[in-house]
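During the reporting period the student researcher (J.K.) took over the structure-prediction task from the postdoctoral fellow and processed the backlog of single-chain submissions. One of the processed entries is reproduced below for the supervisory committee.
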Amino acid sequence: MIACVAFDFDGTLVDSNQVKVQSFYKIVEEYDPSGCTVTEVLQRCSQKDRYGITRELAREFKAKGLIPPPTSTEILGLQWAETYTATCETAIVRCQEVPGASGILTWLLNEGIPLYLNSKTPTNALNRLVTLRNLTHYFSGIYGAPASKLENLLHIQELTQAKPDEMLFVGDSEDDLEAAGKFGCHFAGVILGENSRFRLIPSLHVKSLDNLRGIVQNLQENGNAPTQNH
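J.K. obtained the following structure tokens:
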């Protein structure tokens, strides 16, 4: 059976991954018109959160003499992270949902299955985005950074008293899959178009969230799910 379902947010419920990437280029455009430094930092720091990335950008620009020596890279990085958050918020509110998102959330809620958000976005910013997109009523809990996705899954388990094999995590990236693997719960990958963010395609995956219903139903009935593409 499935006692609860946790969803990642960006790229899983909202088609916002590209918007988030482009926002890094936008906030430091005056220092890096070509975008080369941003590209290098994003590749090198792909596992860091927005604060880690903006601090690294500040260090890079200071090392290149683009920022005055007395400037604190920590303070500047924090300021850029706040600007990044505001820039993303404006853009993400306007993003399209991932196909089938509203439908599957409504169906799961009607089935009496508690839903949670588990994201790398800072919790305060995530709560605001969910509110602005009128999604709050779907979720029993909304959890983001600074806790890791694994820590959030453990917290959800503590709240629900569900066993790991009674939980499903739905996400679109390798770190989602890794968190589910370490925790021991079921995982379903979301793949938009041809832009997979997985090194290897997960055995359970969907290209539209409409198809997640079949995975949940199979888990409810059999404790497993079909491995074919959806």
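The committee noted the following: The two ends are 21 Å apart (CA to CA).
J.K. will present the remaining backlog at the next meeting.
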